[in-house]
User: Fold this.
Amino acid sequence: MLGWSMNLFRVRGILLSVHFTFFLLLAVVAWDGWQGLPEEGVAGGWGGLAANVAILLAFFTCVVLHEFGHSFTAMHYGVGVRRILLMPIGGMAEFDSIPREPAKEFLITLAGPAVNFAIVALLALAVGWPQGWPWQFHNYEATAVGFALLLQKWNLAMGLFNLVPVFPMDGGRILRALLATRLPYLRATFIAATVGKILAVAGAAAALLGFDAPLTAVLFAFIFFAGEVEYRAVKRREIEDAYWRAALARIYPLTPVTEEPPVLR
Ligand SMILES: [Zn+2]
Assistant:
């Protein structure tokens, strides 16, 4: 399904791969930089191309660091991490399994956004805090400090965006882990998925009625179904686990079932 990707290198055994669509994004961004913005007096050419490519690579380096945050925390708890796949929409770490202990899932998930906030804090120490509304990503000065401030805003946005409590974002998993400290895992998933669906419906309604933004509404539709997919996957796993536990208990009493299908996040 994911198609062709290029393997770059391994860090602590984790393979870093880049999906081919990432190179399409790189080409578009490079072309954009080459053209510049003549109306606004932004020069293009090799300088514009190099600046755009540098910004994109710096941004995706932060995406990879976010995924390493998840991965290293998972490895700390003995979870195998096969690879990190980089795509235009972000990164995805492929885990062998996800611990069912809510405290571990909570920390593994929180570690991603925590990396972004750590980068924000480090850059704040180095260059201070950006002036003005943090979401105006294109208004930056073409200097080293301007570049650092832009990266800081992006990491703040990446950290906060991932904390929104909807699947497949980290926030959905964090909410589920918090609920699972008190509730059965499937019930916790159901409630977290429902919260995500309600937010998605509200977001889609706001996008369509308030902002006349149908593409954003499509994004919310995707989030709505991601909640349903997550719930169904957990339900199926619970049924399979129960089946294998019962089957194994009949053959080998006292044998725990530890094999789980691979999990993507
Ligand atoms: Zn994450």
